[in-house]
Amino acid sequence: MYEMLFALTLIFVLAAVLLIVAAQRGLPVIPFYLLAGIVAGAFVDETALLDLAQWGIAFLVFLFGVHVDLDALRSRGRIGVGVGILQATVTGALGFGVGLGFGLDGVNAVYFGVAAALSSSLVATSYLDAPSGARPTYERLAESIHFTEDVLGVVVVLALGAFVYAATPALEQFAVAAGLIALGLGVRYLLFHRLTARLQGDSEVMMLVGISFVIGFIALAELAGLSIVVGAFAAGIAIADDYPHSLELVDTVDDLEDFFTPIFFVTVGALLTVPGFETGGYTIALLVAILVVNPLVLAAVLGRCGFDGRTAILAGLTLDQISVFTLLVAVEALAAEQIARPLFDAIVLATAISMLVASYTSRHGGSIVRSLDERGFLRAIGGTSGARTDVSEDLSDHVIVVDYQHGGRQLVEQRDRFDRPILVVEDNPTLMVEIEDHCDEYVYGDVLDDRVWAAARLEDAAAVVALSPERDSTEAVVDLETDVPRLVRVETTDAAVTFLERGADGVIYPDAIAADRIGDDLEALLADDISLEAFTQRSRDGEETTGE
Amino acid sequence: MTVGGIALATDFALLIVAATVLSYAARLTKQPTIVAYVLTGVVVGPIGLGIVAEDQLIEVVSELGLGFLLFLLGIEMRFDDIRGIARPVGAIALGQAILQAVASTAVALLLGFTLFQSLMIALATTFGATPIIVKVLGDKEDLKALYGKVDVGILIFQDIYLVMALAILTVGTVDDVGEIAFSIGRVLALMSAIGVVAYLASKYFLPALLRASARNKSTLFTVGAAWAFLFIFAAESLELSVEIGAFLAGLALAQLPYSTELKERMRPATNFFIAVFFASIALQMELEQLLAYWQEALIASVLLIGINFVIVFGLFYSQRFDIETSFLGTISMLQVSEFSLVLGALAVDQGFVEEGILGFLSLMALITMPISTYYVIYNRQIYSYVRPVLERLEREDTIDAQPVEYDDHAVIVGYSRLTDELATVLEDAVDDIVFVEDGAEYVEELADAEYGFIFGNARHGDIRQAANLAGADVLVSASERIDVNRRLLEETDDAVSIVAATTDTDAETLSEAGADYVVDGRGLVGDAVARLLADLEDSETFDRQIEALNERAIGPSSRSTSDAGTGGETDV
């Protein structure tokens, strides 16, 4: 008991300190956990923690399964799915070849390829906290690519379970796994709601039901000789993430995960041995694949799909890290004694390094793009596509609206209220179909690109309204050298002051606008000027005139 | 290393699954889950099916569960909650502890237990069961009633008593009187040392630490767990009870604004671990041990319920509570508590008593808890039966302490420019304005403001309960989670509700769920810009409109009473 308590105290104190540092600097925490594991490994016998660490794996995958939303997968865009698969296949094949070139055997070369190819970060755990409201195109794109790669991660684990760890490698394993996932789906749609309805929101019992699902499915998976990852995933699928379960069950299990996550990652760190020459070589090769090859392949593919260079690069830069799934695969392979020890160490090391680098590149994405732009790189990848631009020759006195998604659509719908043509500038090709249907004048491209403004006939325009939530593009609009009045969207008072000083003519601060409108309506209600029905009607009127 | 092996399908896993099935059944019969957990150990352990034995993982997790339980207990010790009724509550708690101890000892002696066993039993059976009182009264929404407040207050005093009992038990079996005195002195000295550390930390170190950690979803939990582990580990190293260490760790956090949110974050893990603890109690027991004193347990249960009713009712009455409050407050407390099992298990561990006594206590808990659940649920019906008998005791000038509660107030979820301005509008229309916000960056601002402030995420039941949604006149929610908004709408009665939506589908769902006013940010932006552009022809009006827009964006609200100062800079 004493040793266990010592280990847990050490892990949590280290984790707490590192989390606070990471949160303050805006750094990812997993690399710190791994480093903490190296420290803790000197004091703690990690075998004592492996039982708890397994729960960590089970919870991570289980939660991923819970948050998998098949409908969302469809709506998140086929482009992301296709691009993700293509990128993973290309780098995976390259990695496999390089692995063989290193003299690894077939199985280890596969691990190498997997580590090089998958670069997601368990969408369930990374994007869930992000505000769902205003997000730029490249983030939405990245999310669907990450999601695709997570699903690929599950498939990889399945395949490895079927062919590498199994006593008798067989295709039947796939069928059994598919059966398990089908069972999960069956439970979700036929049993789950009946089961939970009678609990009347008792989150304590709900949580136990969730945990028992995990245990039950994992037991089934083990019975069938499959990896526990498959069981945990199927258990996650069996749980519906809808109201009210999202509050009563999913949130509770999420909180529980906070307990097992540090234990898992710190234990993985503790498993590291002193890296040798071989490990160093693998690590460098993996880092090259993850940090350079992956973003390039992805950006090239996106450019071919019609995205502009900047969006393609920014989306690519979100993928320059080793996936948590790779870590799971590596730990499982280590348990099955299938992976070469130096390769395992290299994967853990490369994970820590690449995640740190990724946090840097995602924060400095804008300046990386600018420096690539100066070298003429963006134009090589993608650029303004003339086919998706439609501007009348004699267009003048028009209003240029940047960003269709964050209020632009509503503005276009109200164009009758002002007697002027509207021209939409948009950088998301998936929205262009809708824009082509609804708008007469549009330019496809990136606001940082001068050619876009030329095509939009900026000098003849009456005003520019930039509704994009992305700071870089707002700055680009404010810095345009023109006399045309420009209105830009801001999210804070500080940003409003900054942009006005920098040359914007007006700032659109959604929160302040909403406060104005609702404040007036509420005041009228409180003063008994209007009835509650009229109050409700006012909010509906707002919706109707804008949200059709 | 056996990842992918069968480690998850061990005794531990079986125990959890069995506990799930039984607690599910318990929920259907409105029984507290703790009864199901204790029964789980009986069913799967050596007494029943014999398919689960205590292994190392079970032992570790149950020990953690106990530590976390005491940690949460410490966090819940908010002295604000009993302000106003502290004196009568303290008197009842003290009187109850002494009188019940005497009565229990007498009953146990009468039943043929030795003096030492009787004292142990008396020590263990004096508590009210928190899971029943808090859970059942919470479900009945009676925690806010005067009798609920008093009962919760008594439980808080009992916690202090529990911690002292734990401290005495930790001393362990020693023969020499001098040695006992030395041991107790040592325990008390070390405890006070830890207590002083905890107190100083809560004054100088924890506020900054928690503010720094409240930024991120996982950090608050991890920091809380690390804090608990530090104290648990220190207690273990000093050979004190880990429970006391955990309790003091929690107490240090209790008076900080972050405590409710932290408690809610740690509750799932605690619930999970504590289930294992209660289930593991019966795992070490043979059938003979559980049933060693079954007749005595039956008799003692009946006697203690009867005698304790008289004691507690008398105490309530002597403190000038009215008859109804006294009756309802008393019958909620009549059962053997989960802490009896905690103390019993510890006493067995330390070698004070044999397993049979733990079996006796378990049996008493298994008898009194399910029964008491029903009489707590139907307490008012029972009262209406006995009222004619008790009525002759009725008297004037009873205590009429109205518990501090928000009422006829506005609940505002999320602090932003928008909600801050709406608060200004609402100021005169409601009695009180309460902000619910979990962003660490706003803590100081909101704590200093004249409004009420609850730190926490509205997704937690306890946070919503603290805001007393049911009594609110106005609800404003800027939460981006639609499930949270739906739950908020469900829990308000006929309040005017203003909620935010991020998509059109969400807006529709919220309208159907009863929202009076759905805020659609993008629609409002489009609307405002369209209105602005309509004036583009007339450059003078247009400039003036933009000027107004800019001033609204950078300046204070036009509604704000404070001097707006010189107009914002103009930059054309």
Automatic annotation (TrEMBL), chain A:
Protein keywords: Membrane, Transmembrane, Transmembrane helix, Transport
Gene3D superfamilies, per the entry: 1.20.1530.20, NAD(P)-binding Rossmann-like Domain (3.40.50.720)
Membrane topology value: Multi-pass membrane protein
Any single GO BP term: potassium ion transport
Example GO molecular function: antiporter activity
Main location (coarse class): membrane
Transmembrane segments: 52-70, 82-104, 110-130, 151-168, 174-192, 213-239, 259-277, 284-303, 309-331, 343-361
UniProt superkingdom: Archaea
A single GO cellular-component term on record: membrane
Protein name in UniProt: Sodium:proton exchanger
Localization per record: Membrane
Entry's family note: Belongs to the monovalent cation:proton antiporter 2 (CPA2) transporter (TC 2.A.37) family.
Residue ranges constituting the RCK N-terminal domain according to the UniProt record: 399-510
InterPro entries named among the record's database cross-references: Cation/H_exchanger_TM, Na+/solute_symporter_sf, NAD(P)-bd_dom_sf, RCK_N
SUPFAM superfamilies per record: NAD(P)-binding Rossmann-fold domains
Organism: Salinadaptatus halalkaliphilus
UniProtKB/TrEMBL annotation, chain B:
GO biological process: potassium ion transport; proton transmembrane transport
The keyword Transmembrane helix is assigned to this record: yes
Matches recorded under InterPro entries: Cation/H_exchanger_TM, Na+/solute_symporter_sf, NAD(P)-bd_dom_sf, RCK_N
A single cellular component GO annotation: membrane
Disordered: region residues: 550-572
GO MF annotation: an example: antiporter activity
Domain RCK N-terminal: 411-519
Gene3D superfamilies membership: 1.20.1530.20, NAD(P)-binding Rossmann-like Domain
Xref: Pfam families: Na_H_Exchanger, TrkA_N
Keywords, sorted A to Z: Membrane, Transmembrane, Transmembrane helix, Transport
Superkingdom assignment: Archaea
Regions crossing the membrane: 6-26, 33-51, 57-77, 89-113, 119-138, 150-174, 180-206, 218-234, 240-256, 268-285, 297-318, 325-345, 357-377
Membrane topology: Multi-pass membrane protein
Record-annotated Cation/H+ exchanger transmembrane domain positions: 18-371
Location in the cell: Membrane
Keyword Nucleotide-binding in annotation: no
Major location (coarse): membrane
Similarity comment: Belongs to the monovalent cation:proton antiporter 2 (CPA2) transporter (TC 2.A.37) family.
PANTHER family for the chain: SODIUM/HYDROGEN EXCHANGER FAMILY/TRKA DOMAIN PROTEIN, SODIUM_GLUTAMATE SYMPORTER
Name of the featured protein: Potassium transporter Kef
